[in-house]
Specification:
Blueprint lengths: L10 H16 L10 H7 L1 E7 L7 E3 L2 E3 L1 H13 L2 E7 L5 H10 L11 E6 L2 H6 L3 E17 H4 L13 E4 L3 H8 L9 E4 L2 H9 L5 E5 H7 L7 E4 L10 E9 L3 H17 L1 H8 L9 H4 L6
Parallel strand pairs: 1-4, 1-5, 7-8, 7-9
Antiparallel strand pairs: 2-3, 5-11, 6-9, 6-10, 6-11
């Protein structure tokens, strides 16, 4: 009888080993996959990814998930006549990683992949770098503003005054990077860094700093309990190449039908005032995108 060498296995053994290998691979894959538009309608549920611990857009309040993007997600599901399964997404190193984790691949540690993701920068360069996703439906214009303590600085104070007064920023944010080098680095010594914009706002409310710089929505939220003490607005920022940007949504590139459907809903929300109403309920000023970006989406 011919003896099999150790390098060769009988066919049943080969299949057995392949099966074990596939099981091992699947154990590291996400526990759910994004669905097509038809699958979502048939299942009666859409999964929507939002950022974790990201007030005023998505955060926990007394254990309940609340925020602007939460309300938007639930409205989208309502318009599609399905349930909303909201997935909290922990921010990674950059938005590219977030799109990978939430939309087209999943985190290497496992977890669900969402059908769509909210609060994604609507940006051409980002889209070109991420050809496995489609960016669509801008529903918000965000911008960098500065909150200045009126009692300490008066009205219409410029950034030059922070060469002598302290200003708070979120660590490694756009505001932090800009102020660290602005005016020849003369403000850097007066920068106070905090883990979040919310924590920076609390320092401003306590009077530890004379100002706060960051995205308008987050700055407003962080100062809600004492907003009247501050002069909020854009100030001259020489050298800052991008002071505002659009926020939209993302879907996997082979689920464009779903993207079109949700884009129509978002555009209608902007046009009919639903989006502004949601922001008002959270006491945040709403800045809509230019209607040019909405094109024909949402028109009946």
């Amino acid at each position: 009888m011919q003896t099999l060498s150790r390098a060769r296995l009988p066919l049943p053994a080969v299949w057995a080993r392949l099966f074990v290998l596939l099981v091992a691979i699947c154990s590291f894959m996400p526990s759910a996959f994004a669905l097509s538009y038809d699958d979502i309608i048939n299942k009666g549920e859409i999964s929507i990814a939002v950022y974790r611990d990201f007030p005023p857009f998505s955060y926990r309040q007394k254990g309940a998930l609340v925020g602007i993007d939460i309300d938007i997600a639930r409205y989208i599901a309502q318009q599609l006549h399905v349930r909303a399964n909201i997935i909290e997404q922990t921010a990674d190193e950059n938005v590219d990683d977030d799109l990978r984790n939430a939309i087209w691949k999943g985190h290497y540690l496992g977890g669900a992949v969402a059908d769509i993701m909210l609060h994604v920068p609507y940006d051409r360069e980002l889209a070109l770098r991420n050809d496995l996703v489609v960016l669509f439906g801008p529903y918000l214009k965000e911008e960098i503003i500065t909150a200045r303590n009126i009692a300490k600085l008066g009205k219409d104070a410029t950034l030059a005054l922070f060469r002598y007064e302290k200003i708070a920023v979120e660590l490694d944010s756009l505001a932090d990077l800009y102020l660290s080098g602005a005016f020849g680095g003369s403000i850097r010594a007066n920068l106070l860094h905090f883990k979040t914009t919310e924590e920076a706002g609390q320092a401003a409310l306590r009077g530890e700093v004379a100002g706060l710089m960051g995205p308008r929505s987050q700055v407003q939220y962080s100062l809600l309990s004492g907003l009247e003490q501050f002069d909020l607005g854009k100030v001259p920022t020489p050298g800052l190449t991008k002071s505002d940007w659009l926020i939209g949504a993302a879907v996997k590139n082979n689920y464009r039908q779903l993207g079109y459907a949700v884009e129509d809903i978002l555009a209608s929300m902007v046009r009919d005032g639903t989006m502004a109403k949601i922001f008002k309920q959270h006491r945040i000023e709403y800045m809509p995108p230019s209607l040019d970006y909405l094109a024909g989406a949402g028109r009946q």
